[in-house]
Structures are given as structure tokens and as C-alpha cells.
């Protein structure tokens, strides 16, 4: 039978001197690199992910936390109602310290809205009929109590209902919760 040829095992030096001799002799050497510790790699990955998460949280949370907290203003419940047929432009006072009204263009009648109005402000609802005219009536109630009513008729007819709310310092404990 034929001769069996064995492959020589690679030379693995045990000391630095042997490593130098092996290279000098031209023998094949296998480098031994230390493998990274898996626990260390995992810990580094977790730390990197945590840092990335914190950075993204800081960037994405453009935070409303920097603004001062909203000041609580005592309010009263006000119901505005406009009856009739057709449509009307309706402007009413709602919870706004600036006093600006809210306008609903071309609201289908009948229309009703209950809002919180800051004490010390006037509760107001204005109606303006359209080019088609018609008839409409506005009413205003504060905390369930009827305050005022008014009627509008004809082309571009107008009506306004107004009611004064007590000042916060005069209201005592009667303010509605906002």
C-alpha cells in the first residue's frame, strides 16, 4: 500500500525565544490574538444604546417643560345657543385671557356651545345672518341661569347677547373648575 503522509502540526511557540526562532526558520506560525470578552462587548453595546437613547430623548423632547406652568384662572360655565334655520356666522367668548373671541363661519342652525369663560370677563355671543337672510335668536345662560336673549332677521341681520361675569375676587368659592 501507499505511504501515508502526515501533515505537520503548526508550530506554536511557548516562549518569545521560540517565536523568534520559528519566524527565523520560516516555519508557519499561527498568531494568537486574544478574543474579546463577550460580556464586555455586551456591556459596551448596552452603554452605547443607553447614551444614544438619552441623546435622542433630549433632541426629540423639545419639551414644554421650559415654559412656565399655565396659570389657573377661575371660570364660569356659559352656554351660548342660536336657534333658527339656515346658517349664521357666530362669534363667542370662550376661555381666553386675551379676550379674543372664537368665530364659527357658516354654522348650521340650531347651534349650541357650552364653554368655560374666565371670571371678570363678559360672556358674549354675536350672530350675523348671511345674504339669504332669515331669522335667528341667540340666548346666553351662565351657570344654568338665563341671562339674555336677542333676535336677528333679514339679510345680514345681527344680534348680540352679553352677560357680565363676577370678578374673581368677588366670586368667592363659586367658580367652576377648569
Automatic annotation (TrEMBL):
Domain of life: Bacteria
Chain positions covered by the region annotation Disordered: 1-37
Keyword match Mitochondrion: no
Location of the protein in the cell: Cell membrane
Principal place of residence: membrane
Keywords for the protein's UniProt record, in alphabetical order: Cell membrane, Membrane, Transmembrane, Transmembrane helix
GO CC term, one of those recorded: plasma membrane
InterPro entries given in the database record: MmpS (IPR008693), MmpS_C (IPR038468)
Family indicated by similarity: Belongs to the MmpS family.
Protein name: MmpS family membrane protein
Taxonomic classification: Bacteria, Bacillati, Actinomycetota, Actinomycetes, Kitasatosporales
Amino acid at each position: 500500500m501507499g505511504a501515508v503522509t502526515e501533515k505537520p502540526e503548526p508550530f506554536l511557540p511557548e516562549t518569545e525565544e521560540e517565536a523568534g526562532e520559528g519566524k527565523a526558520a520560516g516555519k508557519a506560525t499561527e498568531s494568537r490574538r486574544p478574543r474579546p470578552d463577550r460580556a464586555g462587548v455586551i456591556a459596551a453595546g448596552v452603554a452605547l444604546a443607553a447614551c444614544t437613547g438619552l441623546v435622542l430623548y433630549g433632541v426629540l423632547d423639545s419639551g414644554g417643560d421650559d415654559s412656565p406652568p399655565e396659570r389657573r384662572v377661575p371660570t364660569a360655565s356659559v352656554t351660548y345657543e342660536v336657534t333658527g334655520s339656515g346658517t349664521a356666522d357666530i362669534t363667542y367668548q370662550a376661555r381666553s385671557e386675551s379676550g379674543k373671541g372664537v368665530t364659527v363661519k357658516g354654522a348650521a342652525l340650531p347651534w349650541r356651545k357650552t364653554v368655560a369663560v374666565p371670571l371678570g370677563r363678559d360672556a358674549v355671543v354675536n350672530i350675523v345672518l348671511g345674504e339669504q337672510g332669515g331669522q335667528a335668536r341667540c340666548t346666553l345662560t351662565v351657570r344654568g341661569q338665563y341671562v339674555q336673549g336677542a333676535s336677528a332677521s333679514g339679510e345680514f341681520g345681527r344680534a348680540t347677547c352679553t352677560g357680565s361675569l363676577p370678578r374673581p375676587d368677588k366670586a368667592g368659592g363659586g367658580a367652576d373648575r377648569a
